[in-house]
Amino acid sequence: MRYAMAIDTKKCVGCSDCVVACQIENNVPVGYCRDWVTETVHGSYPNLELELRSERCNHCDNAPCVRCCPTGASYIAEGGIVLVEGDKCIGCGACIESCPYDARFSHPEGYVDKCTFCIHRVRKGQEPACVSACPTHCMYFGDLDDPASDISRVLKNRKYKVLAPEAGTKPQVYYLV
Amino acid sequence: MASRRDFIKISALGIGGMALGAGALKLLAEDSTFDPFSPITQFSRIPTYCEVCFWKCAGWTYTDDKGKIVKVIGNDEDPHCNGRLCPRGTGGIGMYYDEDRLLTPLVRVSENGKQTFRQASWEEALGIVAENLKKIADKYGPESLALFKHGSSGHYFEQLVKAYGSGNIVSPSYAQCRGPREVGWKATFGTTVGSPEPTDIRDTRCLVLIGSHIGENMHNGQVQEMSEAIDRGADIITVDPRYSTAASKSRHWLPIKPATDLALLLAWIHVIINEELYDKGYVEQYTFGFDRLKQHVRRMTPEWAYGITGIQPKAIRETARLMGSAAPSVIVHPGRHVTWYGDDTQRSRAIAILNALLGSWGRRGGFYFDESVRLPEFPIPEFPEPKWDWRATLDGRFPLAATGISNAMIEASIPKEGKDSRIKGWFVSGTNLPLTIPNRPQLEEAIQALDFMVVVDTMPMEVTGYADVVLPECTYFERYDELRTSPHREPYLALRMPAAAPKGDSKPAWWIAKQIAEKLGLGSYFPYEDFKEVLDWQLKQVGSSLEEMQKAGVKQFERRSPLYLKENEPFTFRTSTGKIELYSKEFEQYGFAPLPNYTPHPEPPDNYYRLNYGRAPMHTFSRTSNNPNLTDLMDENDLWVNPKVARIWGMKNGQEVWLRNQDGVISSFPIKVRITERIRWDSVYMVHGFGHNNKKLSRAFGKGASDSELITNPVPDPIMGGTGMRGTFVTFLLEEPIKAVES
């Protein structure tokens, strides 16, 4: 089993429903977020291109945050989901520094927090909150080891990219382009 | 007189009532011990429909085992949202938790020569309202009371005001938003567009957006269907001077010069007629005035339009051909906020005509015939006949206005040339007039001249600061409301019911209206103890019940007639000719151009830029700009400036500037510059709804600039009274301007 996410940049309108849905679902304190939206503009008026992208932890196969964690608080759970065990975390911030995606933050309660792919929902057979809220249906979540899953199909049929491939982290959030 | 109604910043009071809500955010924070690995499982879900915007998506409010509201998600059965709310809907719970909410009635008092608000009991506050309404009725007649309304609550106050004897009811959503489109559509097709727009985007082959920003406006169902259209590879053509989100999703973006859209529309009509791309059978069977239209546009070539719009003739032809080849599965979207330049009804007519030529009205992939549930009205006595109503405030102007015009109602509240004003009292529900209505000085002059003003709101919006009495309404999470009957492909009903008791001393609007009515001896118009009785009675008339709806939230009903026109089906349109009027007999009769013409609009002088404004997906006008969840996504607006312009002015990204308009009005607050290629060099852009000046809105106060404040020269649409608001020109002040000290 290998959980992954694919996000269709052709459909995303950057509305940030994924952000607020995550904050509410996971009780992320106001002022912090586990996912966010970026806007990239290329070209000059009127020859322009715009990419809107919902970003979060990439749940990397080769996760530097897990490797550098001195206490073992950062670990890899089922399906490759990268998690932080709050009680073990001493808040040293090494993982925050090591992440090329800036996906982790210090929770005001003293531990490091990040996207969990909503593992508590996934275990119940639900989709992550961001995926289930997205009004444009631009996000796909599922098991890459299952060739019949939506995510396997969409990655088979569409061109995609990952963020910062040069970091060698083998990220598991794919962007359809 | 001028000091009679000082603007009271509710914050200045330091009254205890405000502390009531202060625990809300802390409550959320306290719960941050919440463990995602063993989440609460004891959820209850309660049906609602969203009140953050007019789309009114049906959803479920979830409460935890302690009865605390934890989230709201879409109802899968609802065609408005298909189980998915937009960010504003998801973040709607912030409206409930906002610690700045109004939680107690407030009455204006004078203390040591300074006006302030004092907390009052409902009994006292309602008594003051009733007493003043009685005075107005006795002294001037009940017609001298005007109601300004928006949203679900407006209904109850409309009933109250009608029972009281006034027909002076206005919704800014007409003259400040979609009125011109409704009039243009009615003149052409005999029916208005309505809301939600019956655009069959799901099945379209070609979607044309001209002044519509789907994706930045989160009109949920349309955003979802546009996404489906992108998946299916439908052609999207976007006309916009700004590289909008929709433009970036389009196969063709036509970066038009602002204020010239009508020239492009006429050129498209020219190409579609001259290249015979129109739906010949449809045009012959259903339309009136084709030959006159053909004659009218004969010289309106793409080359002619190029000189006006800056759009290459080749692009105009190509896009017209795309529409023609997709017809009738094509939508030239009517837009929504269409009050731009004062000739907006005519521009909407041109869009309607284009759709008629393409045969898209009543066709699959074009516009479907929407239907809603015909819900019987709860029996109440007949309303008294007012001696005069909003029509009298128009003074012979705007003959095709279908409802009250806000600015005309405001004018009618100002005494002129020794003549007393006709309107003496205002009832305001759910509309923050200072951040909605153009020409704020006129608005303030009118408010100063009023005998009495009462405002009902959930939040200490700017408009509350002008009121004599402020009545705190509870949010949509805490009340029953009318059933949602808005039309769709299938008729649906949706129920809103409370998921929590009203916070503090806030009350539902139906209760407030009923209490006032009873004090005025009009209790017979509200013949129920609890609004639930009305809902159950209405539901039983259509074969359902409150009990059923409390479980399901939404219910689908059978259509009464087909969704689309059948091939060659005889059909009578509700126009004077019974046909789709390409040539408008109605406009001709009233002395307006029966066929639309392009007229040039003023251009910005040197060093000035046209102020365009629009929407952000996470906000609804000024209503959400203090919502804790939504301000977390976007807490201020910024000013889009083209890099060339920024270079001339030496402006840096993120730098704060003040804006001054052509009339010398300076923005109250600075706005941060966002240098972007997405905007032309002749205009600037900001999201509407920011720049709040009431300190009690603790998150929104002073954040960003208000476009409304800068719009001081609205151009009236002579046909229906819409206020054209895109003719504002602004220049930059790089240093903080010296202003008079506020008292």
General description of the model:
The complex is a heterodimer of chains A (177) and B (743). Chain A has one domain: Alpha-Beta Plaits. In chain A, 20% of the residues lie in helices and 25% in strands. Chain A has six helices and ten strands. Chain B is globular and about 70 Å long. In chain B, helix 9 packs antiparallel against helix 12. Helix content of chain B is 29%, strand content 15%. Chain B has 24 helices and 26 strands. Chain B folds into four domains: 10-97, ADC-like domains (N-terminal domain of TfIIb, Single Sheet); 106-174 and 400-556, 3-Layer(aba) Sandwich (Rossmann fold); 176-370, Dimethylsulfoxide Reductase, domain 2; 609-733, Barwin-like endoglucanases (Beta Barrel), CATH 2.40.40.20. In chain B, a hairpin with an 8-residue loop joins strand 1 and strand 2. Classes of the chains: A alpha+beta (177), B alpha/beta (743).
Structure summary:
Chain A has 177 residues and is of the alpha+beta class. Chain A is 20% helix and 25% strand. Chain B folds into 4 domains: 10-97, ADC-like domains (N-terminal domain of TfIIb); 106-174 and 400-556, 3-Layer(aba) Sandwich (Rossmann fold), CATH 3.40.50; 176-370, Dimethylsulfoxide Reductase, domain 2 (3-Layer(aba) Sandwich); 609-733, Barwin-like endoglucanases, CATH 2.40.40.20.
List the helices and strands and how they pair.
The complex is a heterodimer of chains A (177) and B (743).
Chain A: E1 3-8, H1 17-25, E2 36-44, E3 47-55, H2 64-68, E4 74-76, E5 82-84, H3 94-98, E6 105-106, E7 112-113, H4 119-122, H5 129-133, E8 139-143, H6 150-157, E9 160-161, E10 173-176
Parallel strand pairs in A: 1-10
Antiparallel strand pairs in A: 1-8, 2-3, 4-5, 6-7, 9-10
Chain B: H1 23-30, E1 44-49, E2 58-63, E3 69-74, H2 87-90, H3 93-97, E4 106-111, E5 114-119, H4 122-140, E6 145-149, H5 154-164, E7 169-170, H6 172-189, E8 206-210, H7 220-232, E9 235-239, H8 245-248, E10 252-254, H9 261-274, H10 280-286, E11 287-288, H11 290-296, H12 302-309, H13 313-326, E12 330-332, H14 344-358, H15 390-393, H16 406-411, E13 425-429, H17 440-449, E14 452-457, E15 469-472, E16 492-494, H18 509-519, H19 531-541, H20 546-552, E17 554-556, E18 580-581, H21 585-589, E19 609-614, H22 628-631, E20 638-641, H23 643-649, E21 656-661, E22 671-675, E23 683-687, H24 707-710, E24 715-716, E25 723-724, E26 729-733
Parallel strand pairs in B: 6-7, 6-13, 8-9, 8-12, 9-10, 11-18, 13-14, 14-15, 19-23, 20-22
Antiparallel strand pairs in B: 1-2, 2-3, 4-5, 4-15, 16-17, 19-26, 21-22, 21-26, 24-25
